[in-house]
Amino acid sequence: VLASILSLIIYWIIRDRYRVKNLNGKHVFITGCDTGLGNSLAKWLDKRGFCVIAACATEKGRQELQCCSSLSLKTVNLNLADSNSIARAVVFVTEQTAGKGLFGLVSNAKGTAPVGPTDWLRIEDFHSVLDVSLLGLIEITLKLLPLLKKAEGRVVNLINAKGLMAFVGGGYSLSKWGMEAFSDTLRIEMQHFGVKVSIVEHGFFKAEEVNSDIIEKYLFKLWNRLTPEIRDSYGEKYL
């Protein structure tokens, strides 16, 4: 019993060493805050005293988040497929941090995901996912690195673990695998500057991106635009 109590005390001491203290003035920038995981995280960190800067893809999402958060939470519109939008968001974050640097960057992209047999897809179908969920996240990370280095902050990339299994064609799995590789490389390179890089591989949540009706709609859309030759090679039974 004494050994167990001593072990618990040691565990608590070690655990508490890794807790972030003095949260006031620490800025955290989160992408994908319209709904789901990014939205919940922005509210959670806001309640605990962080200076949250939440990026939303839609004006509706931005307004709804602002209404149910404290005055210290700031929002900004962000389209990760648009370099100009990314540049404006970076300027906004720079102004909000006011020379303190960025304590945390949490990347939580929500690109559209047309999924189906690779033979059914066009290159623009890959772009619609990769431009947001991979290239967009890489671009905004690169542009925020000076602020992260200044504060010796951390990068946290939220990656759906289902994307690590290449069970379906399209850019979904490619974007997740790409973010894994980007994060692993960045982690090694940023150690010199005291910047931490982490990956959180989460499972599916109840959200629009895993709605079976949406997936079915995409499949029928892909099927209907196929050439007769490709469609005949698969047949109605395959569909």
From TrEMBL:
BP terms from Gene Ontology: steroid metabolic process
Pfam assignment, any one: adh_short
GO MF annotation list: oxidoreductase activity
InterPro entries documented for this protein: NAD(P)-bd_dom_sf (IPR036291), SDR_fam (IPR002347)
Family (UniProt): Belongs to the short-chain dehydrogenases/reductases (SDR) family.
PANTHER family: RETINOL DEHYDROGENASE 7, SHORT-CHAIN DEHYDROGENASE/REDUCTASE FAMILY 9C
Name the record gives this protein: RDH7 dehydrogenase
